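Researcher: Go.
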Amino acid sequence: MIVCIFVESPSNFKEKVRTQLEEQFFDTRYLETEANVDKLTELLFEHAQGNVELVIVLGGVDIKTRAISSIAVERIVDGRIYTLEKYLCQLIAESCPECLLTSPTVGVRNQTLIVSLPNHDISLKLLNVVIDAVKKGG
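Model: Structure:
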């Protein structure tokens, strides 16, 4: 199962993400939240349990939102996955100069991979990288 949490994401972006995820995963749950670090931390904690393989947070990683998604991820993960995190940052730097002031964060809690990404079409490309990593198991 995948949980996708949108943090104040535009409707057209949410639809693109849904389309992409539904092509690759059968069981996906979608949630929406405001840019509030405490509420997002609670949502992450609640969904990083049981049979959830992947939690994707879209939005709240830029300086305008004070990177609340990255902060929430950092609060609850047992450990960071720096290799994937740095690779995602590299892809952003190469493909999306307007996203250079974002802070994608990757970590694991229990057996759940948690990834925060920007509210930008570059995340559609990044989702493929994350999904491939999850499918291949490491």
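Model: The CA atoms of residues 49 and 64 lie 30 Å apart.
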